[in-house]
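Researcher: Last one for today. Full complex below.
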Amino acid sequence: MLHTKSLTLNKEFKRAYYRGQVFTSPVVVVYAVKNRQGVNRIGLTASKKIGKAVQRNRARRVMKEAYRLMEQQFPIGWDFVLVARTKTVYSRTGDVMKALDAARAHLFSKP
RNA sequence: AGAGCGAAUCGGACAGCGGCGGGGCAUCCGGAUAACGGAUUGCCGUGAGGAAAGUCCGGGCUUCACAGGGCGGGAUACCUGCUAACGGCAGGCCGGGGCGACCCGAGGGAAAGUGCAACAGAGAGAUACCGCCGCCGUUUCCAUACGGCGGUAAGGGUGGAAAGGCGGGGUAAGAGCCCACCGGGAUGCAGGUGACUGCAUUGCCAUGUAAACCCUAUCCGAAGCAACACCAACUGGGAUAAUACGGCGGCCCGCCGUGUCCCGAAAGGUGGCUUGAGCUGUGCGGCAACGCCCAGCCUAGAAAGAUCGUUGUCCAAGACAGAACCCGGCUUACAGAUUCCCUCUCUUG
RNA sequence: CGAGGUGUAGCGCAGUUGGUAGCGCGCUUGGUUUGGGACCAAGAUGCCGCGGGUUCGAAUCCUGUCACCUCGA
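Model: Here's the assembly. Have a good evening.
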């Protein structure tokens, strides 16, 4: 990806959960918080609740591909955490892209 | 043709565009135009399973422990073989099921000992309730009835199980008391590596439970790749010591610091990490599991963790499901497709 | 990767040398009260997580499997 790293540390996830803005949709939940590193970082979460390994991998891939295709539309300098829900497993990438688009509009169009 | 039995294989296919992990080559950057390290890019090639799953067994590998042995604990349990090993597999034995192909079975020891067998029933390893029979007494012509003493285990009823089963002889009534057949035990002979089988003789015998304790035989040191090895920051400890240097000090001892060496050591780095009891094919040995020879092949190796998105075509419309040190099994889940061997029934020749 | 535990009535839990499955709360009915609560009496409620086995007989023993929970590295 062009200007995106992975989010790895547990405390960085927690920072997104506590300090970040939230957007919820049926297929994905988006947490967003500013970092000061000049790049974007993305964390993907698929808990054991949504299924076993096949379902969890599927949910991660769909979220990752949707973000990759829309990367240029997001501003730089943010951490994003995408949380998979049960419907993510049975969704197509286009559905998740629509949800991300709605999240971008909700989070960044406001002054 | 229909109905079945067993074994094996496969587990959507193809194409375009975009994207991801590892490797190779080139390119670029750093470095000494090196070794090596890194990544803005391009090309080539490669990239999940038959169960990758559950983690139920076994082994490799690594570290720790260990003279040798015992106790304790655990596992296994018909026989012979295969294997690195196994609780696995193959072939056989025995028992059970099916007309059959074939399938199923934790299948050592209850005569070493202990425990348990509720309720019911007279009685559960011992008995005599009802009953049957004999003798004596009373009643009486007899039969019968009642009482007492004894014999008996055929019949009744209870139970999962009642002292081998069934038939005949025998008897007062009965009883392996005797006999034939069947079952089981012991002994001998024959066959087989063996489990075991066949035959003969003897002879009628101690129910079940060991997935109750237990006995017998065999096997087992422990932990796990977050193992472990190497490099190593910060900080800490120790040694060198009858001193290599400096400081405190008049000097020695001593103390402190530096140097050298060692130890410990991170949320760090590298290795372990995939060439292996490997895969494919021919041949040979073996009923088979499997083994041997030769030839060819290289087939994921990540570290938040790679196989996807999208478009199109085809069909039978795609199930269960995602490697994390590696193998051999077991168990469990699974839409469907294909091939082969064999069995039964019917029809035709 | 490794270790352990739990599953029984609507809810919380007992019940293991194998022999008719129980307690508390809740529920239903009746009594008591002018009525309600409390109290008293009676009653209902279970494939003992699921499949298979051992046994005459299994919640209990063995085995397979499912779900949930906890712990260690």
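Chain A has a mean pLDDT of 77. The first helix of chain A runs from residue 10 to 19.
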